Amino acid sequence: MAFLYSFLFIVILLGALGILYIYQYNMLQHAKTKIDQAECLIDEALRNKYDVFIRADQLVKKSLKSSKSFFLDLDKLKEKNISNFDLDRKIKEYTSILNQIKIDYAKLAEDKGFKELLSELNKAEEKLQAAKSYYNKYTSELNDLVRTFPSNIVAKMHGIQIKTFFDGKNLEDTIVDDFKL
């Protein structure tokens, strides 16, 4: 009879551990899925902003009757293999250039097509900021799961590691230069 109770106890214990393992694994996978979804949203928003800058470059050249490109290396940007974070930084440079063009060329700033481009750019920026926030939220959630017990055991078993936030900053390294803008 003692053997039966011991066997029953072991079965219940293993069943409870199995349920805990499945629950923790599913939480980790949920966070990873949300991060992947956010990356897709970020990709889409960055592509939209890139397309707006391609059209803006053409519009500025046409309006100013110039062959000079105000957005250096814009056409070569797609050929480069850069991360979304680096692409976002480059597009921020182009945004400041576009704002300077708007200030320097008041007549161009009044153009209907130029205003539509600025409106599209603002919408794409809003979507990008929302996607970054979404990404960082679930990255934080995943990192918490990877660091805390018992999900850290499941994460180690499946090789799930801490991810960096969208801004590329790693708070756990000794590199200080990654906090520069």
Tell me about this structure.
The mean pLDDT is 87. The longest helix is centred in the first third of the chain and has 63 residues, at 2-64. The chain is built from five helices and no strands. It is rod-shaped. Helix 1 runs parallel beside helix 2 and helix 1 (2-64) runs antiparallel to helix 4. The protein has one domain. By secondary structure, the protein is mainly alpha-helical. The chain is 73% helix and 0% strand.
Topology overview:
Layout: H1 2-64, H2 84-104, H3 106-109, H4 112-147, H5 151-158
Helix pairs in contact: 1-2, 1-4
- Count of DSSP H/I helices: 5
Total number of distinct structural domains:
1
First CA to last CA: what distance? 70 Å
Oligomer: single chain
Dominant shape: rod-shaped
Low-confidence stretches: none
Give me the strand/helix succession.
Answer: HHHHH
Which secondary-structure class do the elements indicate?
mainly alpha
